[in-house]
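Data availability (excerpt). The following record was deposited with the supplementary files.
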Amino acid sequence: MVSSTRPIALVTGASSGIGAELARELAKDGHDLVLVARRREAMEALAETLKAEGAAATIIAADLGEAGAAAALAQELAARGIALDVLINAAGLGDSGQFDRADPQKIAAMLQVNVVALTELTQLLLPQMVARRRGKVMLVASTAAFQPGPEMAVYYASKAYVLSLGRAIGYELRRTGVTVTTLCPGRRRPVSPRSRKCRAPPCSAAPCR
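Predicted structure:
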């Protein structure tokens, strides 16, 4: 259970990879955590390591690839009385292959996680931060956001959307006390069973959730 006396940060995609690393850094910085991902066991292991930093963690297993998952997550936070100081949208999904031969279901899932859920969750949780005139939001994009990506066209395009969204709402929120940061990491190793090897630089692997 998170504490009411420490700032609270929610991290999606917290079961591994960038999400898990960001959760560790937030714990070191004095935050309690709300960890959100599909894999509960991985988050439970992470929560144990966060205790060493004095951080408590609430674990919410959710698949943001499902329609309505972001709204359900926001409702659960409200029901638990959790007011966030930080929102980290780190969940992501990727796949490789030629666009005209791609599995439509994989494309739909990628867009649901990378674009739809990220947008919905950010819009649902921002108003409480703006009302309190304080809060921090991070959207995890990629260096893929700056260029087209043959053989990973949808993934690259989805990250360009995240970068554009982050820049725009960051401008809209100036002087509100709420900041928006868009993180654009580069190459990293696969960390999820769902990861796919990418043959188009600069990414060596799709992100996980």
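Summary of structural features: The chain has five helices and six strands.
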